[in-house]
Amino acid sequence: MPSTVKGVIARSKGADVEVVDVLVPDPGPGEVVVTVEACGVCHTDLHYRQGGINDEFPFLLGHEAAGTVEAVGEGVTEVAPGDFVILNWRAVCGQCRACAKGEPWYCFNTANATQKMTLTDGTELSPALGIGAFIEKTLVAAGQCTKVDREASAAAAGLLGCGIMAGFGAAVNTGGVRRGDSVAVIGCGGVGCAAIAGAALAGATTIIAVDLDERKLESAKGFGATHTVNSSGRDPIVAIQELTGGFGADLVVDAVGRPETYEQAFYARDLAGTVVLVGVPTPDMKIELPLLDVFGRGGSLKSSWYGDCLPSRDFPMLIDLYRQGRFDLDGFVSETIALDEIEGAFSKMERGEVLRSVVVL
């Protein structure tokens, strides 16, 4: 029998979110129902609410989540009822051209649940990133569940499901930061601070945090930044060059995703250095760079999709680092809130007051 549970939806573009009754089907073949224990409030959810992703309203928001498997459908072997899991939006298919090349972190055919969750009147919901986790129970594809050690709190573990993995992976997986490297991170929200933490774990010796907000720069120090630059009053390109012997950083991560920050990242890297874009731009944004500079500076310009992560590999590894006291997941949790406080959490996010608000159910 379908379950009727409370969930948070965005009914139309720009409208305040609502807590409503949602019907969650029993899991079908290859599907899993998860009792959600905690879900982070990510900027992507705000993009959905604002119509910045697509117009397939109403959306069931939330995707940075952890919880317990309640029931599994036919053919599911990856997880079983009672397993503690982090939800992910890269359930790899194992068969597409990326998977066939041994690069499943680029999987081009990721899976979602086949059945739809609905409102009580039958209106189908579009789950954010194929998950929809601002809800007491959610229906996902089995591959979207990654089993991890329950020693981590759900509030902290769930954040690996999106922003923290994206930032960490941008530095470590995509950027390939190495021992002794210099790294600059532009934008020090949750994603940027995770990139800083990843760079520190990988052994970078100069880690420069760049932001307009002193509160975020202070947070960045706690995750391993060795230097901070407030770009509201100082040219970040000049500052990064000064802090790297006049050369620029080996790796610059743009965790904002705006034309001006990408240009800063491009010119703040050393010759043959690497730029990684992990901040998500809007469809209208464009950038113009002299092609001679693109050629003459060499190096790599990369985009990082979900931190180029493989959840089955990376989530357990990061939980192990957390258990060892080497990766401070708890430090990303600014506050815990209830389902009916999400609209206020969006406002705090926009004002830069939190790294992550986390809904605890």
Describe the secondary-structure layout.
Layout: E1 3-10, E2 18-24, E3 31-40, H1 43-49, E4 59-60, E5 64-72, E6 84-87, H2 97-100, E7 118-119, E8 126-127, E9 137-141, E10 145-147, H3 154-157, H4 163-174, E11 182-186, H5 190-202, E12 206-211, H6 214-222, E13 227-230, H7 236-242, E14 249-254, H8 259-268, E15 269-277, H9 291-297, E16 300-303, H10 311-323, E17 335-337, H11 342-350, E18 357-360
Domain Enoyl reductase (ER): 14-361
Transmembrane segments: 154-172, 184-210
Cofactor: Zn(2+)
The SSE string, one letter per element, is EEEHEEEHEEEEHHEHEHEHEHEHEHEHE
Tally of separate helices: 11
**Number of separate strands:** 18
The low-confidence parts are: none
Task: Please give the largest β-sheet.
Answer: 7 strands, mixed
Estimate the strand proportion.
25-35%
| Name of the top-level CATH class of the largest domain | Alpha Beta
Helix percent reads 25-40%
SSE-based structural type: alpha/beta
